[in-house]
């Protein structure tokens, strides 16, 4: 098989050749775009799921849908070591520029950009030296008096209102997409929820679309109790058999190739339907096959190559971030679940390691902060990375 024509492309946030199994989410967002643009009430959206299920890819697709609909749209990735002001300013700058090309009142656009610039400049402390102050690259005078109080909750409500009003002038909307939303600082989470709440009450045409790990709803709920009603939650999981097959067959057939049924059986068994793994095994099977149709024997030959690539780029890079104590904790989780993607009790981990539960708390808390595990429910912990337990057992 010609490797140049190989359609499969595993990569972080990289759109697969066929976005299979996400029609429900795409159709739902299409309705959100239409309703908000018409002044109808609609909740912001939160996507949750394990790593490798395509949340980042889906966010990118939703952003593209918003742009095609004439919306202003900006996307950011939250980081635990950074506050929200700077990346959100850049995302909103992009969104306002999307709207500015069609807005008839240049002075009004400049006013909103001036407010945005004032908001952005508060990312540095008031006593910061000039060289330490971030310059947002917004070439208009600062407009003081809005979104510059220094209180992120007040400022975010005022800024969102300004940007949403600009979109309303064009009978369109603004979408702010936030990846890794669980990594936002507590104050920023609280401010974001408050701003979304204020906008939903006034039916302003601005929506937030967040994506994060399965415990993100708990993070939002801990910040604002009303967040359970503020957002519409969608759990993104692995593909079912029909969608996984389609994700392989459709791209292959566009390249005049196909898979035998037993090859599809083998690929689904190995990938578990996780989109990233579907791409990884599909790419390796294509490269290993001498001709079409790709067979189960080809998949068997290709599997070690796919697993070696996953071991380095998907699993290994995460495992290397763990300290020896954290690795011990991770291996105990894998042993107790026999490598399955299941939660395990924290008390069971302590018993397995013959340690006091309190002595394991630092390792567990650090793993939570690093995004390698999440609290499935009280007293239970699970891997954020599918098949991670299986990988760990294979290394020992």
From TrEMBL:
SUPFAM superfamilies: P-loop containing nucleoside triphosphate hydrolases (SSF52540)
Ranges of residues in domain Cytochrome c: 168-265
Database matches in PROSITE patterns: CYTC
Keyword ATP-binding: no
Swiss-Prot/TrEMBL keywords: Heme, Iron, Metal-binding
Domain of life: Bacteria
InterPro entries listed in its UniProt record: AAA_16, Cyt_c-like_dom, P-loop_NTPase, WH-like_DNA-bd_sf
Signal peptide feature range: none
Chain residue ranges for the region called Disordered: 1-20
GO MF, one example: heme binding
Protein name: AAA family ATPase
Organism: Pseudonocardia broussonetiae
Lineage: Bacteria, Bacillati, Actinomycetota, Actinomycetes, Pseudonocardiales
């Amino acid at each position: 098989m010609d490797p140049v024509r190989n359609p499969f492309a595993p990569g972080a946030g990289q759109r697969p050749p066929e976005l299979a199994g996400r029609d429900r989410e795409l159709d739902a967002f299409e309705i959100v775009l239409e309703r908000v643009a018409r002044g109808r009430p609609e909740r912001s959206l939160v996507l949750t799921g394990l790593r490798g299920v395509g949340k980042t890819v889906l966010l990118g697709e939703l952003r593209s849908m918003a742009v095609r609909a004439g919306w202003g749209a900006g996307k950011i990735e939250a980081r635990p070591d950074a506050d929200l002001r700077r990346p959100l300013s850049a995302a909103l700058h992009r969104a306002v520029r999307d709207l500015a090309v069609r807005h008839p009142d240049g002075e009004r656009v400049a006013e909103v950009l001036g407010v945005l610039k004032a908001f952005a400049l508060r990312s540095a402390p008031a006593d910061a030296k000039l060289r330490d102050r971030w310059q947002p690259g917004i070439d208009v005078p600062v407009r003081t008096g809005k979104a510059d109080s220094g209180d992120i909750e007040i400022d975010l409500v005022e800024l969102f209102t300004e940007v949403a009003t600009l979109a309303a002038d064009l009978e369109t909307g603004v979408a702010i997409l936030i990846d890794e939303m669980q990594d936002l600082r507590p104050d920023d989470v609280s401010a974001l929820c408050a701003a979304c709440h204020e906008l939903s009450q006034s039916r302003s045409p601005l929506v937030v679309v967040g994506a994060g790990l399965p415990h993100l709803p708990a993070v939002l709920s801990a910040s604002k109790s009303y967040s359970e009603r503020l957002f519409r939650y969608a759990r993104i999981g692995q593909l079912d058999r029909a969608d996984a097959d389609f994700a392989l067959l459709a791209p292959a057939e566009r390249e005049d190739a196909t898979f035998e049924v037993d090859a599809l059986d083998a690929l689904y068994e190995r990938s578990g339907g996780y989109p990233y793994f579907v791409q990884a095994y599909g790419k390796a099977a294509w490269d290993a096959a001498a001709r079409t149709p790709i067979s189960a024997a080809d998949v068997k030959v290709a599997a070690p190559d796919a697993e070696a690539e996953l071991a380095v780029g998907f699993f290994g890079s995460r495992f290397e971030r763990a300290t020896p104590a954290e690795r011990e904790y991770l291996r105990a989780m894998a042993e107790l679940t026999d490598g399955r993607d299941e939660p395990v009790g924290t008390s069971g981990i302590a018993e397995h390691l013959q340690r006091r539960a309190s002595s394991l708390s630092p390792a567990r808390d650090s793993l939570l902060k690093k995004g390698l595990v999440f609290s499935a429910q009280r007293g239970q912990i699970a891997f954020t990375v599918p098949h991670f337990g299986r990988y760990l057992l294979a290394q020992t």
